[in-house]
C-alpha cells in the first residue's frame, strides 16, 4: 500500500520547500553567507560604539539549564503522526514471502520531513532486530560509495541482512552496479531501505513502490510541538491558550518535523503566553517561500546564549554527516576557551561543557545520538540544514580545507582537513600565512605524514590550541612539539608507528588533553609526565605494548580522565614505574578507569590501599584486570571503589572468593565477572538494588546456593542475566522467577546447521497471509491475543499454522509449537507433559513442571516479561488452553500471540466474547488448487498427463477438496496404471454412497 496525502497539502508544501531538482534551487550558501557577513558588520559596529561609550564586555551567565534537568532529558525522536508509514514499511521489512532475493525500498521526501527519523525508528525496532542476522546503517550524503562498499565487503555471505542507506543524494551508475553485485550475496529475505530527497533515485532504486513522506497533519504537528515545548506535567494539562498559539505556529512550520522540533525547543524556555505570542509574531514575519525552514533554524540559533553560539559554530568544522564524538567535541570546546566557569559555583569545567552539549541536543541542533549501556550520550550528528546554518554563522573564521585551499581567508582561525589534503611543503607555505588556532582531521581514512612535513607543520603554527593528527601514519613525534606553547589539545591516536614520545612534550605546560588511544606499539609514557601540570585528560586505551606508568602521575592534580593504569609484571623498572599509590591523590577522576595488574605486587595490602579508590566519587565505571595470582584476593579487597560506581568488571581474578564490599554497591547497574578460575561461589549481591545487568563467564568451579537464588530473586531491577562456561551454574533454573528478568541463557552444545530446500505448500499462501493479518504482530503494545484456526479434519489447519510459525518466529523472544495436544494429553503424559514442553521451549531450559510448587504458574512472573509465539495444535477442550496460557491470557508479555488449531471453533467462544481471540475458518480448496495438489502427489508434477485429466478431476471432486485426503489418495495412486485409478474412483464413490 502506498500512502498519499491530499493534493492541496502537497501544493502548499511545494510553495514552501524546493523541489529536489538542483536546477531549481538558488545558492543557499552564497545567499546566507552574504546575510551573515552583513550581521557581523552590524555587530562590529555596535561593539565599536560601545567601546566609545566606555562600556566593558560582560560574559553572560550561561546556566542554560540545571544539570539534573538536562541529564533527565531523554533525547527521543519519537515518531508522531507516522503510524501508517511505520506499519506499512514494517510489513515490507518482515515479509519473507517475496519474489525478489534482495528487496529495495525508498523513503523519499524533503529536507527535515523525518525520513531518517522514521528509518531509525524501524531500524531499532525489536522485531526488526530479531528478524535479521545483521543490520548495517550507512550515511552516504554527498560522499561517494567507498564507506558503503567497505561495510558491504565486511559482511558475511549468506546472512539475512538489513542495510539502511541514509541520505542518498546521487547515484553513480558504475558504482551502484558494482555495489549491487556485492549486495546480492545476502540470504533471501534481505532488505535494503534507502532515504533520499531525490524522487528519481527513489523510483529507480526501489523494487517496491517508494514511500513519499508528506507533511505532518495539523493535530500531529501540534502534538509534536507541545511535546517539545512543555515539561511533562505541563504537557499533560495543556494550557489551552498555548495550544491555540502553538496551532498558529505549526501552520507556519508547514508540517515539517525538524522545524516544529526546533521551534518547540525554543518555546521550552518561554514560560509565559506573552513570550509564545512574541515568537509567533516573529515567525510570521518570515516570507512564505522555500527558505522558511532554514530561517526557522536560524531563528532557533538566534535564541541561543552567546557561549552556545560559538560552540555550535565550531561544529561547522565537521562534515555534514559526521558522527561527532561527544567527549572529543567538549574537549575541543575546552581547549578553545569556549567554556565559561560560572561565578560562585564550584563546578568542573567538564560538567559545564557537558551541560552545553546537552542543551544543544535538547534544542535539536544535534540528532541521531547514540548512548552507552549506562545511558550516557556518546555521539551525535547534525542535520544537513542545521549544519548549513552552522557554516553560515561560523563565517570565514572556520574553514574545512581540501586540496584546493579555496575556503581559506585571512580571518580563518580554525581549520579541519581531510585525507584529500596533502600537507606538503607547498600547501604549508600557503597555510602558514594564517594564524590558525585549530587543526583537526575529519577523515576516517589513514593518511601518511612524514617527519619533515610534521616538523614544518609544528614550526608554522606556533599559536595552535588544538592539533588532531589521529591515524596519520606518524612514526616519530619531533621534539619541536614543545614549540607549541599554547597547545591544549593533542590527539595522536591510532598512530601505530609511535613507540615513545619525546621528553620535550612535557614542556607543553598548557596541555589539557593528550590522546594516545590505539597506539599499539607505544611502550612508555614520558618519564617526567608530572610536568604537564594542566593535564586533565590522558587517554591510553588499547595501548597494548604499554607495560607501566611513570612516577609522578599522582602530581597531576587537574587530571579528570585516565582511561588506564598499568602495573608491570616484574621488577625490571624499579626506579621508573609508579605504583598504585600514584592514584592516591587523583580523587577527581571521572568516567571510566581500567586498572591492569600484570604480576605480583610487593606489600600488596598497603600498596593497594594507597590507591584510595573509595574517595573517587566521580568514577562511573571500573575495570580490574588481574594476572591470576594468590595475592589478588588481598588486592581486590583493598581496591574497594566509591559507592557511586555504576559499572564494575573483574577479569582474571586469582582469589577463591569475592570481597564483602561487593554486596554494598547501591548504585551499581552492571556487574561482569570473567575468567575467575579459582572462585568457588558467587559474590553476595543482596544489596545491589540498582543492578540491571549481570554477566558471569568462565567460572569453572563456582557453585550456587539457596541463598544465591533468594538473593538474585529479590533484586528488583535485574533484567539481563548472561552465564556461560560455568558448568555448576547450569541448574540455576529457579532464577527465571525474577520479576522482569529475561530467562538465563546457557550456551548449548554446538549443533550442525542443516540447509533445507522446502518446496512451497500449494494453496496456502493467501490463507497464511490472512492469519498473519489477524495476528497484527506489528502492534507490540497490544496484550496477548489468540487466533483460532478451525475447520474439518484434514482441511490443512496444522499446515497453515506451521507456515505462519516458520515465517514469524524470528519476530518473538521465544517460540513453541506444541503438536497434537489432544492426543498427547490422552495417551502420553497428560497436560503436565505438555506444560513441561512449553516451559522448555520458552525458557530454552530443561525442566519438569512437576518439580515446582504451583506447577506452571510458578513461571508466570518471568513469562510476563517475554513476547512469545505459541502454537497449540489440535486442541479438543477449553481446559487445555486455560492450563497452557491462562484463562485471561495474562501469563505472557505484551505482543505475545497464540495460534490454536481446532475442529470445534466453539471451544474459543469464551475468549472471543472477551475480545481475546479472533477466528479464521479454513474452507475447502478451490478446484484448480485442489487439482494442482493432486497432480503433484499423484504424478510428481503440477500439470496433468494426457489420459489422466478427466479421471483425476473426478477423483478430486469426490474428495470434497480436503487437502489431507487429496494428498493420501494422490500419493497412493503415484505410479499406478489408469485401470488402478478407475478402481480407486469406484471405491471412493462406493464409500460415499454407503456413508
TrEMBL record:
Residues 580-698 form the R13L1/DRL21-like LRR repeat region domain. Residues 1-29 are annotated as: Disordered. It holds the Pfam family LRR_R13L1-DRL21. Keywords: Leucine-rich repeat, Plant defense, Repeat. GO terms for molecular function: ADP binding. GO terms for biological process: defense response. Residues 317-390 form the Disease resistance protein winged helix domain. The keyword Repeat applies. InterPro entries: Apaf_helical, LRR_dom_sf, LRR_R13L1-DRL21, NB-ARC, P-loop_NTPase, WH-like_DNA-bd_sf, WHD_DRP. Coiled coil: none annotated. Residues 83-143, 149-233, 766-939 form the NB-ARC domain. Residues 1-13 have a biased composition (Basic and acidic residues). This is NB-ARC domain-containing protein. The lineage of its organism: Eukaryota, Viridiplantae, Streptophyta, Embryophyta, Tracheophyta.
Amino acid at each position: 500500500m502506498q500512502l498519499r496525502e491530499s493534493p492541496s497539502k502537497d501544493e502548499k508544501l511545494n510553495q514552501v520547500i524546493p523541489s529536489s531538482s538542483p536546477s531549481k534551487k538558488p545558492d543557499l550558501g552564497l545567499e546566507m553567507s552574504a546575510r551573515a557577513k552583513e550581521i557581523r558588520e552590524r555587530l562590529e559596529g555596535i561593539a565599536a560604539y560601545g567601546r566609545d561609550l566606555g562600556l566593558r564586555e560582560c560574559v553572560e551567565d550561561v546556566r542554560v539549564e540545571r544539570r539534573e534537568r538536562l541529564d533527565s532529558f531523554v533525547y527521543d525522536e519519537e515518531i508522531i503522526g507516522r503510524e501508517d508509514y511505520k506499519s506499512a514499511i514494517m510489513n515490507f521489512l518482515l515479509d519473507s514471502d517475496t519474489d525478489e532475493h534482495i528487496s529495495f525500498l525508498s523513503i523519499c521526501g524533503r529536507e527535515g520531513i523525518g525520513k531518517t527519523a522514521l528509518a531509525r525508528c524501524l531500524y531499532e525496532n525489536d522485531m526488526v532486530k530479531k528478524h535479521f542476522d545483521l543490520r548495517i546503517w550507512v550515511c552516504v550524503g554527498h560522499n561517494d560509495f567507498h564507506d558503503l562498499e567497505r561495510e558491504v565487503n565486511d559482511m558475511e555471505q549468506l546472512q539475512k541482512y538489513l542495510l539502511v542507506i541514509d541520505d542518498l543524494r546521487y547515484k553513480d551508475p558504475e558504482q551502484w552496479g558494482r555495489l549491487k553485485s556485492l549486495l546480492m550475496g545476502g540470504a533471501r529475505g534481505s532488505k535494503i531501505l534507502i532515504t533520499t530527497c531525490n524522487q528519481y533515485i527513489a523510483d529507480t532504486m526501489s523494487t517496491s513502490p517508494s514511500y513519499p513522506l508528506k507533511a505532518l497533519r495539523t493535530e500531529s504537528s501540534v502534538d509534536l510541538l507541545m511535546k517539545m515545548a512543555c515539561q511533562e506535567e505541563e504537557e499533560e494539562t495543556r494550557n489551552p491558550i498555548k495550544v491555540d498559539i502553538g496551532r498558529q505556529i505549526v501552520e507556519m512550520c508547514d508540517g515539517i518535523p525538524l522545524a516544529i522540533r526546533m521551534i518547540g525547543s525554543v518555546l521550552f524556555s518561554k514560560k509565559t503566553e506573552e513570550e509564545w505570542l512574541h515568537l509567533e509574531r516573529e515567525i510570521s514575519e518570515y516570507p512564505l517561500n522555500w527558505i522558511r525552514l532554514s530561517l526557522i533554524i536560524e531563528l532557533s540559533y538566534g535564541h541561543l546564549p552567546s557561549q552556545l553560539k560559538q560552540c555550535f559554530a565550531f561544529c561547522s568544522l565537521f562534515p555534514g554527516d559526521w558522527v561527532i564524538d561527544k567527549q572529543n567535541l567538549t574537549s575541543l570546546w575546552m581547549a578553545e576557551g569556549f567554556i565559561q566557569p560560572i561565578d560562585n559555583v564550584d563546578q568542573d569545567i567538564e560538567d559545564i561543557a557537558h551541560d552545553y552539549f546537552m542543551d544543544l541536543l535538547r534544542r535539536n541542533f544535534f540528532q541521531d545520538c547514540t548512548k552507552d549501556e549506562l545511558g550516557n550520550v556518546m555521539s551525535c550528528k547534525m542535520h544537513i540544514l542545521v549544519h548549513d546554518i552552522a557554516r553560515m554563522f561560523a563565517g570565514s573564521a572556520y574553514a574545512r580545507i581540501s586540496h584546493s585551499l579555496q575556503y581559506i581567508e585571512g580571518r580563518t582561525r580554525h581549520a579541519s582537513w581531510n585525507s584529500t589534503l596533502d600537507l606538503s611543503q607547498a600547501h604549508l607555505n600557503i597555510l602558514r600565512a594564517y594564524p590558525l588556532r585549530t587543526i583537526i582531521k575529519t577523515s576516517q581514512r589513514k593518511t601518511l605524514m612524514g617527519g619533515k612535513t610534521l616538523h614544518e607543520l609544528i614550526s608554522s603554527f606556533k599559536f595552535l590550541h588544538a592539533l588532531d593528527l589521529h591515524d596519520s601514519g606518524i612514526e616519530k613525534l619531533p621534539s619541536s612539539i614543545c614549540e607549541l606553547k599554547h597547545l591544549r589539545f593533542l590527539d595522536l591516536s591510532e598512530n601505530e608507528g609511535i613507540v615513545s614520545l619525546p621528553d620535550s612534550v612535557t614542556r607543553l605546560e598548557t596541555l589539557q588533553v593528550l590522546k594516545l588511544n590505539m597506539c599499539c606499539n607505544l611502550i612508555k609514557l614520558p618519564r617526567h609526565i608530572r610536568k604537564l601540570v594542566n593535564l586533565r585528560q590522558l587517554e591510553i586505551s588499547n595501548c597494548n605494548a604499554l607495560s607501566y606508568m611513570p612516577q609522578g602521575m599522582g602530581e597531576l592534580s587537574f587530571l579528570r580522565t585516565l582511561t588506564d593504569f598499568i602495573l608491570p609484571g616484574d621488577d625490571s623498572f624499579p626506579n621508573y614505574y609508579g605504583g598504585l599509590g600514584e592514584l592516591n591523590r587523583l580523587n577527581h577522576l571521572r568516567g571510566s578507569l581500567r586498572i591492569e595488574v600484570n604480576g605480583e605486587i610487593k606489600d600488596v595490602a598497603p600498596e593497594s590501599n594507597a590507591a584510595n579508590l573509595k574517595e573517587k566519587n566521580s568514577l562511573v565505571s571500573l575495570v580490574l584486570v588481574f594476572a591470576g595470582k594468590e595475592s589478588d584476593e588481598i588486592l581486590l579487597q583493598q581496591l574497594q571503589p566509591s559507592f557511586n560506581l555504576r559499572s564494575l568488571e573483574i577479569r582474571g581474578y586469582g582469589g577463591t572468593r569475592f570481597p564483602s564490599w561487593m554486596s554494598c554497591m547501591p548504585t551499581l547497574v552492571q556487574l561482569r565477572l570473567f575468567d575467575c578460575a579459582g572462585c568457588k561461589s558467587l559474590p553476595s549481591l543482596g544489596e545491589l538494588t540498582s543492578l540491571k545487568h549481570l554477566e558471569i563467564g568462565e567460572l569453572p568451579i563456582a557453585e550456587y546456593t539457596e541463598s544465591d537464588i533468594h538473593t538474585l530473586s529479590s533484586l528488583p531491577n535485574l533484567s539481563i542475566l548472561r552465564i556461560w562456561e560455568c558448568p555448576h551454574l547450569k541448574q540455576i533454573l529457579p532464577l527465571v522467577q525474577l520479576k522482569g528478568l529475561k530467562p538465563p541463557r546457557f550456551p548449548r552444545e554446538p549443533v550442525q546447521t542443516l540447509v533445507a530446500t522446502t518446496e512451497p505448500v500449494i494453496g496456502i499462501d493467501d490463507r497464511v497471509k490472512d492469519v498473519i493479518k489477524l495476528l497484527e504482530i506489528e502492534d507490540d503494545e497490544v496484550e496477548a491475543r489468540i487466533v483460532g484456526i478451525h475447520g474439518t479434519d484434514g482441511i490443512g489447519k496444522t499446515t497453515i499454522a506451521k507456515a505462519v510459525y516458520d515465517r514469524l518466529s524470528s519476530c518473538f523472544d521465544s517460540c513453541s509449537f506444541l503438536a497434537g495436544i489432544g492426543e498427547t494429553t490422552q495417551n502420553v503424559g497428560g497436560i503436565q507433559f505438555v506444560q513441561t514442553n512449553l516451559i522448555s521451549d520458552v525458557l530454552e531450559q530443561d525442566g519438569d513442571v512437576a518439580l515446582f510448587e504451583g506447577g506452571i504458574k510458578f513461571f508466570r512472573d518471568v513469562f510476563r516479561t517475554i513476547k512469545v509465539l505459541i502454537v497449540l495444535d489440535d486442541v479438543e477442550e477449553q481446559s487445555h488452553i486455560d492450563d497452557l496460557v491462562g484463562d485471561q491470557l495474562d501469563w505472557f508479555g505484551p505482543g505475545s500471540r497464540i495460534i490454536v488449531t481446532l475442529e470445534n471453533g466453539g471451544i474459543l467462544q469464551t475468549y472471543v466474547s472477551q475480545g481475546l481471540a479472533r477466528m479464521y475458518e479454513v474452507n475447502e480448496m478451490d478446484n484448480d488448487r485442489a487439482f494442482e495438489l493432486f497432480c503433484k502427489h499423484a504424478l510428481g508434477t503440477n500439470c496433468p498427463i494426457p489420459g489422466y485429466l478427466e479421471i483425476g478431476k473426478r477423483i478430486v471432486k469426490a474428495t470434497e477438496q480436503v487437502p489431507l485426503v487429496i494428498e493420501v489418495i494422490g500419493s497412493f495412486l503415484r505410479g499406478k496404471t489408469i485401470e488402478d485409478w478407475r478402481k480407486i474412483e469406484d471405491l471412493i464413490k462406493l464409500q460415499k454412497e454407503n456413508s
